[in-house]
Write a structure and sequence with these properties.
CBS-domain, binds pyridoxal-5'-phosphate, Rossmann fold, alpha/beta, four-stranded parallel beta sheet
Length: about 475
């Protein structure tokens, strides 16, 4: 019995690399009318897009006689290429040695070691000319190790070639040739250059948009031809402080800069709203794809972007609220319902604006006018029994003015849902993104206050989770 892909039967795990799914994004696109599809490279056995080049680079070295049984594979990597190389080396019986900058997550370093690789951790923040730079450390190890090959992903033409032969054709087939825009984020540039070259050969009008972290030199170089200085940034696996030969600027039409904060917040949204467990660079890519989708604003277009690695590699970082707070990516105090009420109180708002069912409608309209609110709960002996809105009260009084003097209870609608003081933003978003435009915050002592969609939006603005103006 031999392997048979059509039956899902494979000779080795290496045969499962590629043919990753293309999934529509439904919620993180918010109101954009242009369809956005994501190619989920975390379905590769090593969990990232780099599995494609790991195997290709090793097979090329074997074909060219540079790698023989008992040989060693060496590379400077952010981690994912290390995993891709380590999987192929594990199956083929080669030793691996990787130089990995200390900036990279512990999960990545532990993972390549799990596949049997040896790791040399190098300092972050040293430039490409420094002997301690991870690329230079790897080059030195390869030169000093008999039978070793340097994968050299930033200068190895096999890298973009692998995406020209696999990623590009898969996207073309999976979209029936309908793809109009490709969005990715380069590090070596192999993914975006190889895939774009293939797709542009079939559709010269295809637009290629590259995302670039604030701090990387690519976007500036694309705009001016000047290699800027670069600055540190937290997103891993994308951007660069040097220009690799594997990045073909000629197939890229535009660069968009993205902050760590926007990248990490979109990665968390992908996981929580699409169920796609994503790393920070995927958040960066999807942030660009959604901005582009809004700008293109055309339901007949088709944007394809990439989820380049799994979020599992970042549990101690972007998925760790403490780490996010330490790095000013999340508000210092967790935004519970009680904290938002406190913010309202600090801004001078009274704790609770409410009416009793027997109060006249006029009393309700007075309170609405005095406190500039548009709704409030109806509370009877401490119990929330309904809610009234300005719109409904106004309409009733216009229809029958004498109703101003009648009990407001008769115009009440369903009570606002109640949440406990420690309700977190996810719970508040859930409650306030449905029918009800307000919630009651209550505990065993009673009703503590009201939070509206406006209050939550104000908080999201102040914590940078959303930006005014789209
Ligand atoms: C998570 C992640 N995203 C994106 C990329 C960029 O891919 P490429 O090197 O093909 O430009 C990498 C590359 O290491 C990566 O690790």
């Amino acid at each position: 019995m031999k392997g048979d892909r059509s039956l899902g039967r494979f000779e080795t795990v290496l045969d499962t690399i590629g043919d990753t799914p293309l999934i529509r994004l439904n919620r993180v696109t918010d109101d954009a009318r242009t369809p956005v599809w994501i190619k989920v490279e975390s379905f590769n056995p090593g969990g990232s897009v780099k599995d494609r080049i790991g195997l290709a680079i090793i097979e090329a070295a074997e074909r060219e006689g540079r790698l023989a049984p008992g040989g060693t594979v060496v590379e400077g990597t952010a981690g994912n290429t290390g995993v891709g190389l380590a999987i192929a080396a594990a199956v083929k019986g080669y030793r691996c040695v990787f130089a990995i900058p200390e900036k990279m997550s512990a999960e990545k370093i532990r993972m390549v070691k799990a596949y049997g690789a040896e790791v040399v951790v190098t300092p972050t923040g040293v430039g490409p000319d420094d002997p301690e730079y991870y690329g230079n450390v790897a080059r030195r190890i390869a030169e000093e190790t008999p039978g070793a090959v340097l994968a050299d992903q930033f200068f190895n033409p096999v890298n973009p070639e692998a995406h020209y032969e696999t990623t590009g054709p898969e996207i073309w087939d999976q979209t029936d040739g309908q793809v109009t825009h490709l969005v990715a984020a380069p590090a070596t540039g192999g993914t975006i250059s190889g895939a774009a070259r293939f797709l542009k050969e079939r559709n010269p009008d295809l637009q290629v948009v590259a995302g670039d972290p604030v701090g990387s030199i690519f976007a500036g170089y694309f705009a001016t031809g000047e290699k800027g200085g670069g600055a540190p940034y937290k997103v891993e696996g994308v951007g660069n402080d040097k220009i690799p030969s594997t990045l073909d600027f000629d197939v890229i039409d535009e660069f968009m800069k993205v902050s760590d904060r926007d990248a990490f917040h979109m990665a968390r949204r992908l996981t929580r709203e699409e169920g796609l467990f994503a790393g920070g660079s995927s958040g960066l890519i999807v942030h660009v794809a959604v901005e582009l989708a809004r700008r293109v604003d055309d339901p007949t277009s088709c944007i394809v972007c990439l989820l380049t690695d799994t979020g599992e590699r970042y549990l101690t970082k972007l998925y760790n609220d403490e780490w996010m707070r330490e790095n000013q990516m999340l508000p210092s105090t967790p935004a519970t319902a009680a904290a938002l009420l406190e913010q309202k109180r600090a801004a001078g708002a009274p704790d609770l604006i409410a009416v009793a069912p027997s109060d006249p409608v006029s009393r309700g309209l007075e309170l609405i006018d005095e406190h500039h609110v548009s709704q409030m709960p109806v509370i009877d002996n401490g119990n929330s029994i309904g809610a009234v809105t300005e719109a409904k009260l106004m309409a009733a009084v216009i229809r029958r003015p004498e109703q101003l003097g009648e009990p407001i209870g008769s115009l009440a609608g369903a009570p606002f849902p109640a949440v406990p003081p420690d309700a977190d933003p996810t719970r508040l978003t859930h409650e306030l993104s449905r029918e009800s435009s307000a919630v009651l915050v209550a505990d065993a002592t009673g009703i503590l206050g009201v939070l509206t969609r406006y209050d939550l939006f104000q908080h999201m603005l102040s914590s940078g989770e959303v930006r005014s103006g789209g």
